[in-house]
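Molecular record:
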Amino acid sequence: MAKLEAKLGMIVDSVGNFFSGKDQLPWCDPDIVAGCEREVAEAGKQSDEFLQECLLRLSWALVHSKRPQDVQRGIAMLEGSLPSTADPLQQREKLYLLAVGYYRSSDYSKSRDLVERCLLIAPDWRQAVTLKTAIEDRITKDGVIGLGIAATAVGLIAGGIAAAVSRKK
């Protein structure tokens, strides 16, 4: 139990780094995911409300994992549970976590759409605003890289044509 508490302390530090700008998004290691999975298994003996809380924590851990298969599992869990979520706060949480999952999966367009839906529910939610900024920065960065690649390709093609023309002369 002490080991899980230490790992949870690392999550709190990671979240703090996210808001201070040191880290783009907090990461979660496999031990935390395993702990959350055990918690869900044990929660089945408790109330449905407690089980839902445990499932939300597991979803959080999965979408913040460094392992792509965990992130995909978290996305699937959240997408499966979102339609039956009536409470706006829970819906906001799940939309945010889905946005994180898609961000981690490099689907920035879908991530941005989800975080914007989240901001419709809570326009001043700092976590969502910060994630939206990170998504937009990533889209901009990827666009600049894409332009650089395109410019290089055009330059190579133009160079090849110029070389071919000069050989014919």
Summary: The chain has one domain: 2-168. Confidence is low (pLDDT under 50) at residues 14-23. The first helix runs from residue 2 to 20. Helices lie at 2-20, 30-43, 48-63, 68-81, 88-104, 108-121, 126-168.
